[in-house]
Write a structure and sequence with these properties.
This protein is an alpha+beta fold. The chain has 19 helices and 20 strands. The radius of gyration is 26 Å and the shape is globular.
């Protein structure tokens, strides 16, 4: 209920303490993002990845600090509801001219729900909806950097304009040949736009910060011509990473080059994919960046854009608001997710909603030697690691209240059987104490059962490419069965079962020893010693290649995955300090590489007669 008077002096003090906690968080967050420029210039790839990983932890550290401070000073968890309602009103007032109000509201929610965890599902003193508008926020100080810069070239000055766009980022390194790269960009623009008529308001809009991730820095913007807007991104790389260069090229390290020109929503969606690591971007007004990026990718939810910018807690908050809105406007029921049931996870979904919900079971079959804590650590590893476009991002939630009547009874029975420690019924709510939410994909085993021969070929090739990308990123998937991979709407194969992943460098890849006698040769059991991290790639075949068409496609493209030497060579490269990067665009888009035939695109799953294939 809205308080009639602001009568408690502690309310303002608490509001100030909360805002100071958030401001400290965003100051540190922004400093980590801004320093990405220096790490890029120094080619400090390990440092860049470390910063991406450590920045994820900043938010929870600041929330913990705020909770500890408020408990010590005010015994905040014991304060009555009317005090917290006054705290919220003071906090809203403090955010009136703030440049990150939506993030500060989320921080407020995080602290409050940590303090008041017994009663926050249906209260009126957290920000269930945003209270402060994020429209038209800008820093009007004279020295402030705008969210984006506008350039107004003529036909004759377009080349000079793109040169100036690059120079304005003031990278402290020279380009190998920027004039040549700009010519490549202009040729790509000409191919993309064709013979178009220049309109009066022809302009190029470019976000003021570069987008840093791993070994790349990306210029992101759009070309506006009348009523037409064309999104683009230009990846900038270090010369030593250019494929195809030889010692005879007479080039020196430390130079930069523009590697490609990406255009349109689909290219940008791949760049900002949910299966890639978060960007490091220096933003004073993040909502303005999100608004600009939404104009480039209107199909991408704001929650996913915030997450791609490293603001994953804000992404979680917006995702949950969207989820509640979906529940209000739908009537179907949560069910056990289709497909082969997992051994450690109970997975359910809502047919009308494009995500799945995963709950760690309380007990596992004997072959799964693991614990809840170990499984959670694997999911955290994926959150912090470079996902190279091959591992789905997850949203982790605690104490989520679902409407009980929206659950099928079979699902409730499964939850009570496998996850009783995580389940609570409170009035009309079914509360799950811990769960993960992931983008729903078509499980690869199901896709293969329904695929045409062309689709099957493409999916098997993509499966092998996915494993090789993970290997390059120092990830061994562990359980490589088809059912643990999914197919996105773009035809990409993505891994999503993380309970057995390991760092590649922690694994020992061995050949199966030759049998010493006839008894060992004829034994149906493993007769040789196997260590905890031993892996025998030769043994993958019987589990993966039971179907003739699948085996033929796999052996034609990825037979090396069955050879221990493949895995050992990648392990040694990583141990020697090599940092590999899987760039989020097709090789044929790269200026410096001879165009290769584009990979076949996987069309949508056809309406075919179901074929029973032994694929798991």
């Amino acid at each position: 209920m809205f308080p009639h008077e602001l009568t408690d002096p502690r309310a303002f003090q608490i509001a100030m303490a909360l805002l100071e906690g958030f401001n400290k968080h965003y100051r540190l967050f922004r400093a980590a993002s801004a320093s990405a420029k220096q790490r890029f210039e120094q080619a400090d790839w390990r440092g860049q990845q470390r910063a991406q990983r450590e920045r994820i932890e900043f938010y929870d550290l600041r929330v913990d600090e705020a909770v500890t401070q408020l408990e010590a000073r005010y015994q905040a968890s014991q304060l009555p509801t009317e005090v917290w309602q006054q705290v919220k009103l003071h906090y809203i007032g403090l955010l009136t001219n703030h440049r990150q109000p939506e993030l500060a509201e989320t921080f407020f929610n995080s602290v409050c729900t940590r303090l008041l965890h017994h009663s926050y599902f249906h209260n009126d003193f957290i920000f269930v909806r945003p209270a402060i508008s994020t429209e038209y926020i800008e820093n009007d100080e004279p020295a402030a950097q705008p969210t984006y810069r506008c350039y107004y070239p003529s036909h004759d000055t377009l080349r000079d304009t793109f040169m100036r766009i690059v120079w304005n980022f003031q990278l402290d390194l020279e380009f190998e040949d920027l004039a040549r790269d700009i010519d490549h960009v202009l040729q790509a623009i000409s191919r993309e736009l064709g013979n178009f008529r220049w309109r009066t308001n022809f302009q190029v809009q470019v976000l003021s910060s570069l987008f840093y991730r791993n070994k790349g820095a990306y210029i992101v913007g759009k070309i506006v011509n009348g009523f037409t807007e064309t999104a683009f991104a230009l990846p900038i790389l270090h010369l030593e990473e250019a494929p195809g260069h030889s010692a005879a090229a007479h080039t020196r390290p430390g130079l930069l080059y523009i590697d490609a020109a990406l255009f349109g929503e689909d290219d940008l969606l791949m760049l900002f994919s949910f299966a890639r690591a978060y960007f490091l971007v220096d933003m004073e007004v993040p909502s303005a960046y999100v608004q600009f990026l939404r104009s480039l990718m209107p199909r991408k939810p704001r929650s996913e854009i915030y997450a791609a910018l490293g603001l994953q807690k804000q992404g979680k908050n917006l995702f949950y608001r969207d989820f509640l809105n979906h529940l209000r406007h739908s009537s179907d029921k949560f069910r056990i997710a289709p497909g082969i049931k997992g051994m450690v996870m109970l997975v359910f979904d809502l047919p009308s909603y494009p995500f799945v919900f995963k709950v760690i079971k309380d007990f596992y079959p004997p072959q799964k030697d693991t614990t809840r804590e170990q499984i959670q650590s694997k999911y955290l590893l994926v959150k912090q690691h470079d996902r190279v476009g091959r591992m789905a991002d997850t949203l982790e939630y605690t104490r989520v209240a679902f409407p009980r009547h929206r659950f099928e009874e079979e699902l409730v029975a499964e939850l009570k059987h496998f996850c009783p420690s995580l389940l609570e019924e409170s009035g009309d709510d079914l509360i799950i104490h811990h769960l993960y939410i992931e983008r729903r994909m078509v499980p690869l085993n199901i896709y293969l059962q329904e695929a045409s021969p062309e689709q099957l070929q493409h999916a098997v090739v993509e499966y092998g490419n996915a494993i090789k990308d993970l290997v390059a990123a120092n990830i061994f998937p562990g359980d490589m069965l088809w059912k643990n991979f999914g197919v996105t709407r773009h035809g990409k194969v993505v891994f999503y079962d993380y309970d057995e992943i390991e760092y590649l460098t922690d694994c020992h890849f061995r050949e199966v020893p030759a049998p010493r006698n006839e008894e060992e040769e004829m034994s149906g059991e493993v007769w040789y010693a196997v260590g905890k991290h031993d892996v025998f790639p030769e043994t993958f075949g019987p589990f993966l290649l039971g179907h003739g068409e699948v085996r033929e496609a796999f052996m034609a493209h990825h037979a090396d995955l069955l050879d221990p030497a493949f895995w050992q060579a990648h392990k040694q490269r990583i141990l020697a300090g090599h940092v590999h990067d899987v760039f989020p665009y097709d090789p044929h888009k790269r200026f410096r590489v001879q165009a290769s035939p584009p990979a076949p695109q996987a069309p949508q799953i056809p309406e075919l007669e179901h074929r029973e294939l032994p694929i798991q």
